[in-house]
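Human: My hope is that you can spare some time for a protein that puzzles me. I am handing you a single protein, as its sequence and its fold in token form. Could you go through the record with me and say what the backbone is doing? Take your time, and here it is.
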Amino acid sequence: MIFQAYAASEAKTELKPFEYEAGILAGNEVQVKVETCGICHSDLSMLNNDWGLSTFPLVPGHEVIGNIESIGEQVKHLKVGQRVGVGWFSNSCMNCEWCVGGDHNLCGSSEGVIVGRHGGFSDRVRIDATWAIPIPDGVNLESAGPLMCGGITVFNPILQFDVKPTNRVGVIGIGGLGHMALKFLDAYGCEVTAFSSNENKEEEAKSFGADHFINSSDAGSLKKISGSLDFIISTVNVPLDWPAYIDALRPKGRLHIVGGVMEPIPVPVFPLLFGQKSISASPLGSPNSMAVMLEFSARHQIEPMVETYPMDKVNDAMEKLRSGKARYRLVLKNEN
């Protein structure tokens, strides 16, 4: 079968119409007709080959919402016509201790939808059926795509580290990831503090669910909240004053990083040691965590703030992301 897509022929070039022969559907796979596909900063990183993982031609896109068009002979839990979501992962081994234990996202043999294969800037995409997550009623299909990567990235730590509704939680960075974290934590019942270097984001951050706002470029403001937070999620990919955020944690508090900071993180040991504090990080989430996130989103009517573009305007959308002007996630839509 011929798939119609948009691909870059080499790094840092524009996306152009591209078609490819998909071959025979494997027994463990499903073929999804793409309705919408969110644009994640990881798509831009792959397009630029920032991580050295990209192969060209590259079809980006890993935040897919669509209908199952066909299923492999081994697939029993899904059916043709069912609406599903697709995130970063396209496959995992299903046999290692992590997959068997339900932590498929930690599988050492996991495969990415756009790593060595073609993604969702297309009319169709294929993945292992385990990673096709059914979309429950109540989820807004027009905006759901970014939940499949950005959403699960900030929701997974809430599950993994047993964040409680009574916790005081901070979110660093009010952008594509951070604004979803605020919505999740607010619905969860936490007292939420938003950190941003842009003081103009205060009103919007509070509309997303923040109870408090701190201008992170003001060292004095950070000092005032010393020892007050149980959990902090950092969604940014730039170096910060990490000791100041560790100081903001209560004893047994945790600084959790989901933003791809490329530089080493220097931190003093004694504040961690004496306060029994922790620093951690996590990659996206398992199929079960994704299903829980979607059910939570449906129940609390949580959806990302998105701007929608027709699929054939993909280069316009990518330029908006590149310029840093997206508010806050971008979604491509197939017209038929």
Remarks:
- The chain has a mean pLDDT of 96.
- The chain has two domains: 2-149+285-333, 151-281.
